[in-house]
Amino acid sequence: MKLSQFKFKLPEELIAQHPVGERDEARLMVVNRKDGTIEDHSFKEIINYFDEGDLFVYNDSMVFPALLYGNKEKTGARIEVFLLRELSAENKLWDVLVEPARKIRIGNKLYFGDDESMVAEVIDNTTSRGRTLRFLYDGSHEEFKEELYKLGSTPLPFYINRDSAQEDTERYQTIYARNEGAVVASGAGLHFSRELMKRLEIKGVGEAFITIHSGLGNYREIDVEDLTKHRMDSEEMEASQVLVDKVNATKDAGRKVCAVGTQVLRGIASAVSMGGHMKTYSGWTNKFIFPPYDFTVTDALVSNFHLPYSTMLMMVAAFGGYDLVMEAYKKAVKEGYKFGVYGDSMLII
């Protein structure tokens, strides 16, 4: 497959800038791989496509307030700091991106907060934009994280053309998030309300959780036409024994396993074992999935509508079949479906 095959015209007004009124009120397009049909529904109706014994796998990673603004010592220049991951809790070291990067050198100090009480020192250059910061804080690690996160705001995707607001604190987070570490939310997971999950439970549809800390690599521009030459950024993940046991029991019973989001699809594919089963996995994955790809565990996929050229679109096309998915996307544009993390959803069965 070539990068240019994932180009389509997406009007800017179809990129959702705000969440819908209620989580489960988004539109749902149902794509049936078996008969090639494409139907329009409400997200609440997703329950009609699953039965007792089927299993939904969710990503329980929690997005943290990763976007900070600081002032450079002496000059007072305003610097955007994007927290990527904590490198050392003991030494308060963080891997970050800074903008404008040209103004920041090793040894520079940055001051955060109205009273500039939080101070960080640049100790390493990792990439043209990346830096390693050491935060200078005397309190406990718990107190430090609490203070740091008070200063941060929700890291919205680049295509949302506004600053983060109070609504994003709650809505750019799934209701089942519990393991902190992501800077990118699961758009597919945002549609699941407590009421819908309760209805699924009553129907006998099971739930299981995988942890994948989604990073900015999801939005990194692909700069090669030949997709076999693209390298994904690594993301930390964990597939526990509890998850594996539930997935394998579901497969053995001949029931459906549904991945909620492309990151879950990728995580399951990174922990595949023989005979259509999963194995436990704890570590990092840089698996890049694009058509054609043989999925042996996942039977259904919930995913939002993604932007042109994105790796998420490529994963959806790999699962649903390139021609059928691109046909569905053409219909979505024509009928005004909303795209992006706050947009509408697709179920592929």
Automatic annotation (TrEMBL):
Pathway(s) this gene product operates in, as recorded in its UniProt entry: tRNA modification; tRNA-queuosine biosynthesis
UniProt xrefs under SUPFAM superfamilies: QueA-like
Domain of life: Bacteria
UniProt keyword annotations, A-Z: Cytoplasm, Glycosyltransferase, Isomerase, Queuosine biosynthesis, S-adenosyl-L-methionine, Transferase
A GO CC term assigned to this protein in UniProt: cytoplasm
Record's catalysed reaction(s): 7-aminomethyl-7-carbaguanosine(34) in tRNA + S-adenosyl-L-methionine = epoxyqueuosine(34) in tRNA + adenine + L-methionine + 2 H(+)
Signal peptide: none
Family: Belongs to the QueA family.
Protein name: S-adenosylmethionine:tRNA ribosyltransferase-isomerase
Organism: Duncaniella freteri
